[in-house]
Design a protein that fits this description.
Layout (H helix, E strand, L loop, with lengths): L8 H5 L4 H11 L1 H38 L10 H40 L1 H6 L5 H34 L12 H6 L3 H20 L2 H22 L7 E5 L11 E9 L4 E2 L10 H10 L1 E9 L4 H30 L2
Length: 332
């Protein structure tokens, strides 16, 4: 691994380069800043529209549909229902994609392009230490990412809450895109994507490779966090009889199986109702007296969100520490 040249300590002591570096960073990434601002304005306006007029119109249309469902020649505003569905889907998808966009930009443009072109040395010869260069590189985008996602996520949650229970096709809280688009986990994932992309640019020193690596690594972090999330908080157990073929309760299902006469939970595939002869024979062999479901109800929404947010932020902090350690080693 080659070593990059850092400026002498004396060059850093007699200058105050932080404001100049911040202005230079904003000028360098002005197109990205304009695009990020436009994205925030468009998504914010769409979510406000969804929160108010769209939800009210769609809810009224569903009331019309429910009132005359059994009648002939029923009239209801189908366009309002479809409009609500489309805007909700598009805004949710756009929000879920933000961490990947941040990671790809951080890897491809924030650090990857400059280390590839060697312009980092130019900054370091202007009285900017490598550590201060990286700190500025991360702090300004982190502030913008936090501000935008910290605004859009509550707006999405408010828009979803306004339609919950009023619109028949509204997504449940446990729907994966809805769960992430309306909670603080998305803010943490966007910050983690920024850190991961920046580290990828420092490691690879190739803009295209860092772009792809940052986005893919962020996807892997998201997948790992999602698979871990159901086990971060104690579940609730619902029990049903064998004839029903299932157990009550709705939310995020963690485990299902049969309950034996001794109280043991056997995580075996459910057969169905005991009225089916084959299922009745299976339950007899297992000494089953009921069926159980371990799940997270709606009341666990915020505990799960906060626990997962803390873990993702811890990973982001570890990645930032690794980036500074790598830069310090290369410029020693």
């Amino acid at each position: 691994m080659s070593t990059l040249t850092s400026p002498a300590p004396a060059a850093v002591e007699h200058s105050s380069p932080a404001p100049r570096l911040a202005r230079w960073l904003l000028r360098l990434h002005r197109p990205a800043l304009y695009l990020w601002t436009a994205l925030a304005v468009v998504l914010g306006a769409a979510l406000l529209w969804l929160w108010g007029p769209l939800t009210d119109a769609a809810a009224a249309a569903w009331d019309q549909y429910d009132a005359c469902r059994t009648g002939a020649g029923c009239h209801y505003d189908q366009d309002a229902i479809l409009r609500y569905k489309n805007v909700d889907q598009y805004t949710t998808t756009a929000l879920v994609a933000l961490p990947f966009l941040v990671a790809a930009w951080a890897g491809g443009a924030l650090t990857g392009r400059e280390t590839e072109n060697g312009t980092t040395r130019l900054a370091w010869t202007q009285g900017v230490s490598p550590a201060r260069w990286l700190a500025t590189k991360l702090s300004l985008p982190a502030a913008l990412v936090t501000a935008v996602t910290g605004l859009l996520v509550p707006l999405h949650h408010l828009a979803w809450s306004a339609g919950d229970g009023r619109i028949d096709t509204a997504k449940p809280w446990s729907d994966v895109p809805t769960f992430y688009a309306g909670g603080p986990v998305l803010v943490a994932l966007a910050l983690a994507g920024l850190a991961i992309g920046a580290l990828a640019g420092l490691v690879l020193r190739n803009s295209l490779g860092a772009l792809v690596t940052g986005a893919c690594a962020t996807a892997c972090l998201w997948a790992a966090a999602h698979l871990t999330m159901p086990y971060l908080w104690p579940t609730v157990t619902a029990v049903g009889d064998l004839r029903s073929g299932g157990a009550p309760g709705s939310g995020i299902t963690v485990a299902t199986g049969v309950l034996t006469s001794t109280g043991e939970h056997l995580a075996v595939p459910r057969c169905g109702s005991s009225t089916v002869p084959d299922c009745a024979a299976l339950y007899d062999r297992l000494d089953a007296v009921g069926l159980y479901t371990d799940y997270h109800p709606r009341s666990h929404y915020w505990p799960l969100q906060l626990m997962e947010t803390g873990i993702v932020l811890a990973v982001a902090a570890a990645v930032v520490t690794a980036a500074f350690a790598l830069l310090r080693r290369r410029t020693a």
